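Work Package 3 committed the consortium to producing structural models of liganded targets before the mid-term review. Because experimental data for this complex are still outstanding, the team generated a predictive model from sequence and the ligand definition alone, so that downstream docking and mutagenesis planning could proceed in parallel. The input record is reproduced below exactly as it was submitted to the modelling pipeline, together with the SMILES string for flavin-adenine dinucleotide.
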Amino acid sequence: MDPVVVVGGGISGVACARVLTDAGVAVTVLDRGRRLGGRMAVRTVDGHPVDTGASYFTVSDDRFGVVVHDWQLRGLAREWTDTFDVFDGSPGQRGEPKQGSMRWASPGGLRSLVEDLAGGLVTEHIAVEAVTRDEHTGILSVDGRPAAAVVLAMPDPQARRVLDPSFESRAELVDEYAPTMALLAGWQRRSWGDGFDGAFINGDPHLTWVADDGARRGDGAPVLVAHATEGLAAAHLAEPAGAEPAMLEALTRLLGIRESPSWSRVHRWSLAHPAGTRERTHHLGDDGIGLCGDSWASTPRVEAAWLSGTELGAALVARLG
Ligand SMILES: Cc1cc2nc3c(=O)[nH]c(=O)nc-3n(C[C@H](O)[C@H](O)[C@H](O)COP(=O)(O)OP(=O)(O)OC[C@H]3O[C@@H](n4cnc5c(N)ncnc54)[C@H](O)[C@@H]3O)c2cc1C
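The resulting structure, written out as tokens with the ligand in place, is given here.
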């Protein structure tokens, strides 16, 4: 039998491929990035990994808990914090810190967890252009390679670009995604006070969130990562560097930082967060197309993406035997 082809090596695609491989179903993962991980992205600056995409993850599903526990035992994941500050957009104006569920981080950056999950999988780094179906034989094809089934594990707008309109499953790809930008900045020393982990920012025109990257990683590096409002990101999608001065001004103002950073850069996320949510965790059509990812959830996030890929993998194992 032709292998299942999973297009997309973020956590949902890798989780799906993991289930298939463990059940003895041949699978190939194709991802256009140089590394796997998708939006659990990491950039290395001055030898330090910095999380540029997802800030952390939470655990509520027992099955995901088993995976995370294994990462923790092997030192790949760590409990970070359950409490963040709340800024109201003015310097010095802080609301009550907000306590929630435990946020998990990774000393090596969140991408290292996806790469660990992908251990032993067949992966290739190519950008897929078209998923098609032979009109006579009905055989599925991913850029010319035959497939028993094809999984698109990516945001709907990206899946729409590759899935041929003749597939019935294309009608499922209705979601849109909102953009953001991540400002990464490093200083010689930490001047914003020990004990700071991160803050939700309300009412600021430029920033929604800031994380202390050294605190979450556990190495204490004086590095902050701030995320832009959707409005600022949308205005600068064509030239992300144009958003940097406003983001840096807001960050230093809110945290009372007087020194200029030693380095800073902006990373663009054109498709950061799904606009919609779904009740189902995945789609598996009669046309052999599987769809999974973080928009197949009521709360889009890392855990939901893992669950979506895992449940699609189980459905494919049941179908393909
Ligand atoms: C800035 C930001 C902050 C976030 N913060 C949090 C957080 O704090 N907590 C949390 O739980 N979640 C957070 N998230 C969301 C979380 O990152 C996602 O829910 C999760 O990583 C989605 O995984 P996925 O596999 O569904 O999609 P993705 O990670 O987007 O994976 C899709 C993959 O498909 C690949 N791909 C796309 N098109 C093609 C093609 N044509 N050919 C080959 N490969 C292709 C891409 O390269 C990518 O690797 C955040 C996301 C962003 C962007």
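Reviewers should note the following from the model. The first strand starts at residue 4 and ends at 7. These observations will guide the Year 2 experiments.
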